[in-house]
Specification:
mainly alpha
Length: 93
C-alpha cells in the first residue's frame, strides 16, 4: 500500500517505526536513504490530513449568520481543541 492511501494514524505509526530503525544505527546508508524518502512521503501525507482537518474546523467555527469568524487580519479565528475523552480521563472540566 502506498503512503498516500494510509490513514493519518497509520502514517504517523510508520514514521515512528522508521525513526526507531534509523536511530538504531544498524542500517546501511542506502537503506537510510530509502527510509528517509519514505518518511518524507509520509510527512507530506500527514500534512495533507492536518490541512484538511484545519479546513473542517474552520467551517465549524462559522457564526450563526453563516460567515466565517475572522480576526483583524482577515484570518479565521481558531480555538484550542480538547477532545472530550481527555476530560474524562483527567477529571478536568
Amino acid at each position: 500500500m502506498s503512503e498516500e492511501n494510509l490513514s493519518f494514524e497509520k502514517s504517523f505509526e510508520r514514521l515512528e517505526e522508521i525513526l526507531e530503525v534509523m536511530n538504531s544505527g544498524k542500517v546501511s546508508l542506502d537503506e537510510s536513504l530509502k527510509l528517509f524518502e519514505e518518511a518524507d512521503n509520509l510527512i507530506g501525507n500527514c500534512g495533507k490530513y492536518l490541512s484538511l482537518a484545519e479546513k473542517r474546523i474552520n467551517i465549524l467555527l462559522k457564526n450563526r449568520e453563516g460567515d466565517l469568524l475572522l480576526d483583524d487580519k482577515q484570518k479565521p479565528i481558531t480555538e484550542d481543541f480538547t477532545p472530550i475523552a481527555d476530560n474524562i480521563f483527567t477529571n478536568k472540566e
